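Duplicate of #3305? Posting structure anyway:
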């Protein structure tokens, strides 16, 4: 196992991280949403879910969060799960250090960061009470999901329109390429992955599809599209490993 692989257990601890390629909460995303809800712990038989619209802060964060909470409530009901989904409006530096919002995150069983602008989460969350709350929840066994820009932020590096920036590093050694279906893979890799630092692995994820990651063991694909994995130092498109719903892979040779 590489040094990158050895760091994952200390960062994820007891929880599960779910990286999603975009199109979150829309029809066709039921498999992924069901998987993360079923993986989440229950508090008094209730899944307490938090939708955090940080990446949508320049747009309509309240609407983005409401769309997510309704979807989680709906899918939970279809699975006969009691879900209490709330919007947690961490949208700037001030709200990221709000103790009340941080407490909601620390107590959540499922935390979901939907998409938006990829530069916002890496700029807002590091070192804040909100991010400490997320890590506390993961330590309790919670699920942390990120879709599109939300997923991009959880790797070591994040593509932004201004260039690649340091991500939150929860899943070390990777740069996430969202919206990466078979037709758009080459264009999106050039856009998101071509400027990845040396040594970065590239994880391409199609829409309405996710990768479920625990501290140890293989990563599992859930959803209707495909996932593509390019190991470090490899940029040959044809060398990407293609995986589909239900398949697992061990990126670091674990």
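Output from current build:
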């Amino acid at each position: 196992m590489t040094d990158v692989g050895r760091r994952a257990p200390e960062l994820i601890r007891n929880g599960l991280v779910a990286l999603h390629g975009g199109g979150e909460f829309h029809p066709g995303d039921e498999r992924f949403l069901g998987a993360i809800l079923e993986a989440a712990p229950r508090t008094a038989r209730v899944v307490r879910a938090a939708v955090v619209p940080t990446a949508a802060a320049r747009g309509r964060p309240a609407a983005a969060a409401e769309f997510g909470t309704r979807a989680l409530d709906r899918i939970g009901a279809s699975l006969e799960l009691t879900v209490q989904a709330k919007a947690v409006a961490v949208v700037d530096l001030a709200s990221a250090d709000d103790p009340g919002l941080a407490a909601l995150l620390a107590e959540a069983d499922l935390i979901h960061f939907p998409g938006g602008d990829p530069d916002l989460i890496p700029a807002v969350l590091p070192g804040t009470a909100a991010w400490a709350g997320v890590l506390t929840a993961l330590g309790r066994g919670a699920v942390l999901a990120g879709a599109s820009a939300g997923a991009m932020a959880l790797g070591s590096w994040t593509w932004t329109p201004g260039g690649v920036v340091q991500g939150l590093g929860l899943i070390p050694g990777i740069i996430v390429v969202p919206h990466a279906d078979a037709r758009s893979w080459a264009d999106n890799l050039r856009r998101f992955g071509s400027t990845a630092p040396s040594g970065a692995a590239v994880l391409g994820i199609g829409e309405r599809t996710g990768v479920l990651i625990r501290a140890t063991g293989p990563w599992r694909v859930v959803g209707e599209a495909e996932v593509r994995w390019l190991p470090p130092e490899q940029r040959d498109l044809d060398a990407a490993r293609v995986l589909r719903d239900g398949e697992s892979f061990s990126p670091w040779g674990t």
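Confirmed duplicate; merging threads. Residues 3-249 form a domain with the Rossmann fold fold (CATH 3.40.50.880). The two ends are 6 Å apart (CA to CA).
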